[in-house]
Write a structure and sequence with these properties.
The complex is a heterodimer.
Chain A: H1 2-15, H2 22-40, H3 45-62, H4 69-83, E1 94-98, E2 105-108, E3 112-116, H5 117-120, H6 126-141, H7 144-160, H8 167-188, H9 192-208, H10 215-225, H11 234-239, H12 243-249, H13 254-259, H14 267-273
Parallel strand pairs in A: 1-3
Antiparallel strand pairs in A: 2-3
Helix pairs in contact in A: 1-2, 1-7, 2-7, 2-8, 3-8, 4-6, 6-9, 6-10, 7-8, 10-12
Chain B: H1 2-9, E1 17-21, E2 25-28, E3 37-41, E4 46-53, E5 56-61, E6 66-70, E7 74-76, H2 89-100, H3 114-119, H4 124-132, H5 137-146
Antiparallel strand pairs in B: 1-4, 1-7, 2-3, 4-5, 5-6
The chains are: A mainly alpha, B alpha+beta.
Amino acid sequence: MRRAALAALVALCAAAPAHAQFNFNLNRLLDVGKNVRQAAGGIDPKEEIELGRDMAARLLGAAPLVANEGLQRYVNNVGRWLASQTERPELPWRFGVLEAPQLNAFATPGGHIFITRGLVERMRNEAELAGVLAHEIAHVLKKHHLQAMQKTAQLELANTAITTFSRQDASAQKRDKLLSAGSELFARGLDKSDELEADRLGVVIAARAGYDAYGLPAVLQTLQAMNPADSGLALMFKTHPAPAERLDALEKMYPTLDAYAAQQQLAARFLGALGR
Amino acid sequence: MRIALVALAFPLLALAEAATVVRATDLKQSPATDAATLAPLAENATVQTLERKGGWTRVKTEAGAEGWVRMLTLRYAGGSEAKSGDSGIVQLLNVARTGTSGTQVTTGVRGLDAELLANARPNAAELDKLQRYAAPEEAAAQFAARGPLQAQRVEYPKGAE
């Protein structure tokens, strides 16, 4: 990150037009460089949460919550219990079921997690729900989205920095760029390595919470068994590695999976919350 | 009504469905690595899946033998090109939903495609609801205890932290 910001600064200096103006411009360029660096690195937890909340509001603009308070509170209980088993229990964790027939799940920085009605309805028990929520929680813990957004925003800021000398402008721009990078990210997806890491950590987090560790693999197998051309899967398959590849990668986790395979599945409580 | 329709159209996938094993493996007498081997299974062997228990799935081989294989080694036919066309889950749900009540004809719930996500405007009212439904840590712990779920100490895989 820092090296990239430095590279942007060097590029700016190289772009300074006239030799005679160089000393005068250097101070301003150094300021711009600082702003670019801030966009890249210094996001504190408060900013992380606010940014995630803004992204969550946009997601909810695309699909509202399912109008079932009991289901929403149930999913929040499962999610909050999982999050309590992690290294960031203090985040304001929020969980929501989105009114959408497609199968997908989303996380935004700071602890906002969403799962679609389409995906919940394909699950068999609470351990499967926990597996998917734990995968999304892992994205938040590892700041996968935040880092990807910062990378995009930083590149864009560096491109526009030459015309943006005031610190205030740069700060407002930073937020806008980050947010638009966030929206784009939901359509484009994270790096494959981030997804596979979230699968591994998700298995561990679900096991910590007392669930059958095979919940997440079971959901992946459900997805794998579906027709990839199904319209409900288009975005999920575009933004994630193929389920078969994710199942292959999870074989590394056999020791954890098998040690906690006999834990709770809680099918009755899950189906009850869904009104089945 | 809607849920009943879905259940009808999509029975649990684990039951009696054709799958193949992704690599050569052993058909076990019981769901455990140290269980007796009933027969070897070649790569790409076709089986019918019967039930899952932990990380194991009970299967019936083409030769008629029944036993257990590692769940993660199974790939279902639907994930390949074997089936064609759309299973129609989105259309089905939309039809079912409009069918439940004449007044609640789902306005704009087309679902989450890439274009919709990129152009969505913030929805403050729904965000308020999201905050309101949040579970306090203590309440979630009580919910877990009713499961009953018991917290375990489990390490992250090496290199993940």
